[in-house]
């Protein structure tokens, strides 16, 4: 991740008075894919918030006389599973789980990453040790670090949140440190120092706000990864346990009914795919929109 | 160049030490008493104490760590709490399957990725470009465990062309290759998508550069212009992406093995995590992380070899 994403003072002043936020948003709206992504995320949030109003049958409610119904059969929009539970209901309660787990693990990861990154970027003495810790955490490929933490804490959805947060820390710390290092060298920071501003003031009021652009992009992309990893871990039996309507766990449950009820594993997968896709394209779009030096190439 | 290799090797040793310490400590502080896992619920207190003494669990933690480290250096990763089998042996019997899966997937990813990306760049804005770009966007969004499940549903359950799972035949037999097709596509797709994306943008950038224009003006044939002059420089960022991706691929092996019931390191690890069989978790996690950092080192060296401008000072 390049560190030059931070909006620098020169660009901010050479443009007209319109705030950066509005400009960024306008640029984002020019990107059709990103708008599509935003639309999917908006729908996800709406169905997650209003889940109880959108279902006629609870996600855990079994009806053994209506098992393995196909899509649209007997008033079940997306059919039912092997216990006669409504797939639509499970799917939208699953959206709740995905968003909550994704959001909380990204926020926790950001807090950890921001603290390490800002301290490392600002204090040279701490930088060495912090970056070695970050390197160490980076030595575990992909989902492996999350798995190690689950191995340590045991399998549950809460532990998945902890695992994914810790796994998000090194990436965030590296980005923040990069931005902090480049901002620290600028003259206005030196000026602040000579005016007697405290370290805390410089870090929180001047360096932190300048890290927001890359952090927003990282957080958006990371939401996708976090949701994907949650379902991967649940699929493997290391995350949400049955009967929790988590998407990955639903796919795993559907594997045994591939002959008779393939929709049980098809539908949750489509939901995961659309969600990850949405966060990826919005993240991509934000990266382009937040970098004033870059042209949108469609 | 030699200086770079020596320095990186030194860093590698330190990193491997750090990894082993982290993995050891995380299992050490994990709740759950190994003696209870081995002795079972009926074991008496004196039995548990005997097991602890037998395993050396009554010693100070650092002594235990250095003992473990010494064992690893001699190829001894301890013994499974569950089966009593040597962890080294368990890993060695499953390792070939994981290697087969990872290399087949990497091959799929590199071949499809580079070809799709290059063609998309050369024929920019054509339908080939659009379909290749769409593929690379969709490819990174598809969860591999779901893709695998869907491939099984289509090609094994409905069409019955390919086996549902397992990896039991030798890779040099027809059956062995057939068994690898679905798992390799499952695991390779996301990496192929990323490689295609990177190859496309790198190639587009190189094609627009001055030296390519000069070569064109000198009358270099289009074929050699692209595949000889441009490719080498376009490959520099692609090699990095391949290297970074290798980690995701290794992590993905764990999941793909579970989908296709392949008896590899990943399944061993997941079963061990579920059973809280710490020595097996330690051994497998350590092995995968070690492979990852070693491959990263190799990628860095290759990187310096293709681009003489890089010196890593």
UniProtKB/TrEMBL annotation, chain A:
Entry's localization field = Cell membrane
Q: Where is the ABC transmembrane type-1 domain?
A: 95-283
Q: Which organism is it from?
A: Virgibacillus subterraneus
Per UniProt, which keywords does this protein have? Cell membrane, Membrane, Transmembrane, Transmembrane helix, Transport
Spans traversing the lipid bilayer:
33-55, 97-121, 133-151, 157-176, 215-240, 260-282
Show the InterPro entries listed in the entry: BP-dependent_transpt_permease, MetI-like, MetI-like_sf, OppC_N
Matches recorded under PROSITE patterns: ABC_TM1
Q: Which PANTHER family match?
A: D,D-DIPEPTIDE TRANSPORT SYSTEM PERMEASE PROTEIN DDPC-RELATED, OLIGOPEPTIDE TRANSPORT SYSTEM PERMEASE PROTEIN APPC
Query: Which membrane topology term applies here?
Result: Multi-pass membrane protein
Task: Tell me the classification of the organism that encodes this protein.
Answer: Bacteria, Bacillati, Bacillota, Bacilli, Bacillales
* Main location per the UniProt record: membrane
Q: In which family does this protein belong, per the annotation?
A: Belongs to the binding-protein-dependent transport system permease family.
Pfam families (alphabetical):
BPD_transp_1, OppC_N
Name this polypeptide is given: Peptide/nickel transport system permease protein
UniProtKB/TrEMBL annotation, chain B:
Q: Membrane topology type, per the record?
A: Multi-pass membrane protein
Query: Secretion signal: which residues?
Result: none
Where do the TM regions start and end?
12-30, 101-122, 134-157, 177-196, 234-255, 285-306
SUPFAM superfamilies documented for this protein: MetI-like
Record localization? Cell membrane
Q: Which residues form a coiled coil?
A: none
Q: Which residues form the ABC transmembrane type-1 domain?
A: 95-303
Family matches, as InterPro entries:
BPD_transp_1_N, MetI-like, MetI-like_sf
Report the superkingdom from the record.
Bacteria
For this chain, the family text in UniProt reads: Belongs to the binding-protein-dependent transport system permease family.
Protein name in the entry? Peptide/nickel transport system permease protein
Q: Which organism is it from?
A: Virgibacillus subterraneus
